[in-house]
Amino acid sequence: MYQADIEKAVAHYKALLESQVERAEKMNQASAPEKKEKTVIGVVGGDGIGPIITLQAQRALEALLKDEIAAGKIELRAIDGLTIENRLAVNKAVPDDVLAAIKECDVLLKGPTTTPSGGEQLESANVALRRELDLYANVRPVSVPEEGIDWMFFRENTEGEYTLGSKGIEIPGLLTMDFKVTTVAGTRRIARAAFEFARKNGKNHVAIVTKSNIMKKTDGMFSILCREIAAEYPEIQADEYFIDIMSANLLKPNMRSQLQVFVMPNLYGDIITDEAAQLQGGVGTAGSANIGDRYAMFEAIHGSAPRMIARGMGDYANPESILRAAVMLLQHIGMPDKAAKLTAAIEAAAQIAPITGTKEGSTCAQYGDALVQALAE
Ligand code: NAD
Question: Is 50 in the pocket of ligand 1 (CB under 6 A)?
Fold first, then answer.
């Protein structure tokens, strides 16, 4: 009865499999990027509260990097057009001209972008950018010193449930099917990134987080390959946890203070890093880095907060998240002193112009003024 639907689905699946084989083979041939004289930082506002919070991060970078900008070593370049209106108009997650402009940059500071959910097929701009720029490591720090929490999450960023998230199969009225893809090269490089970070930062424990008892092929291979990489780091203890119990462990004081570095497939990382950020004070306080061998993109971990905009509260959005992302950007381009200066200024500005998310608190712009003032001192 469903023969025609099944045949259509099989043809669709064959094309998907061929595209994934091609992607996996390309990963095996990746080469090291060339060194450049000038670093171009692209600044992308995004949607909703994105342009509001990104503006304050841009002001901070302009103040911090004014000498390097004047000397032509760094350029801050505004990239327009990554808006939901534009993306829907051309029906592309990232319009071609915007993607070309982004590829002319080295690193990006990006505001959140809206993704329509459900039936509409427009892919998330973030998912598309992570794939197009091959930003395979999503790196998110979470720190709550008074609770003994100092975590670094390494979420695989280009595979898993997300690679083919808009390319599932449907037999109308009967069933739907999505796909999860894990490659050998994709797993090895995220595992290597996590263990290298642990080694360079004196950490002696890495938690490998999977659901390999259920997702036997994909998570099963992720688990085996992470353990293979772990064997090259004998000074680091590697333990595997299932995602469900790890979600509980993050809430257990005696357990969570022992956790240090985490490595995990895409979807689990997406969920658990928001849980972790909540322990730190909410998604408005957390930044994240998307790192590849050629490009890197830094952003807030939250979305475009459409409800805040609808309530007329956009100007009260907290820019701390994107500023924490700017700190990671400065570390990434080899400016740890400027990163430390920005961290101190973020803390000072939060005292001078505290943001509460209500009209009793400061606005994002007032916070930005306090920040620029603190950077000038
Ligand atoms: P959201 O992160 O936009 O909002 C969740 C909650 O956090 C809301 O109550 C919001 O008001 C609050 N919040 C978020 N950022 C804040 C800030 N800086 N200051 C104060 N409060 C803040 O999550 P959502 O509503 O699930 O998603 C909205 C849209 O954003 C969706 O289209 C989604 O796809 C998109 N999104 C984009 C990204 C990204 O671009 N990286 C990430 C997540 C979600």
Answer: no
